[in-house]
Design a protein that fits this description.
Elements: H1 26-41, E1 46-48, E2 58-61, E3 73-83, E4 87-92, E5 102-107, E6 109-115, E7 121-127, H2 129-141, H3 152-163
Antiparallel strand pairs: 1-2, 2-3, 3-6, 4-5, 6-7
The structure holds nickel (II) ion (NI).
Length: 165
């Protein structure tokens, strides 16, 4: 396993749409393990493949490890199946935009389906922080970052804040 470099916004790769993962090759397995290691090292609770320059539809997340309840997920070709009508707004950080939080509004609850590292289909519902985290990581696979959810004025202010760091 090895740590991978995390790309920082506005690296153009963070604005690209990623390609589906085909076969789960040894390279994909290595990428997944490296991404988990890189996420824990950062330290963060989610990391998407394009953030380490791998332009494939895969992310890792573990929303419990910082509270001593590790639950590592490797989500390959994830898709939302159901989204709640209720929305919530929360401050989100991003390992590619270190030091800046942005308030993003999202569905409060989602059901996501993905392929696991062993090839099986996994369906899971997420609520609260985990719901926001899963949607945030899924966004990365479509070239979307937190800034892209903001109105023009807030976006300009947040970008200025990031550039001043
Ligand atoms: Ni992010």
């Amino acid at each position: 396993m090895s740590l991978r470099e995390i790309l920082r916004w506005p690296d153009p790769r963070l604005a690209e749409t990623c390609a589906p993962v085909g076969e789960i090759t040894p390279e994909i397995k290595t990428l997944a393990r490296d991404m988990l290691e890189t996420m824990y090292d950062a330290p963060g609770r989610g990391l998407a493949a394009p953030q380490v320059g791998a332009m494939v539809r895969m992310f890792v997340m573990d929303t419990g490890w910082k509270e001593g309840k590790p639950d590592p997920l490797v989500c390959i070709n994830p898709m939302l199946q159901e989204i709640s009508e209720e929305r919530v707004e929360a401050e989100e950080g991003c390992l590619s935009i270190p030091g800046v939080l942005a308030k993003v509004s999202r569905p409060a609850q989602v059901q996501m389906v993905w392929t696991g590292l062993k090839g099986g289909r996994i369906v899971q519902s997420f609520i609260g922080f985990a719901a926001a985290c899963a949607q945030h990581e899924l966004d990365h696979l479509d070239g979307v970052v937190t800034f892209d959810h903001l109105d023009a004025e807030t976006r300009a202010r947040k970008i200025a804040e990031f550039e001043a760091i």
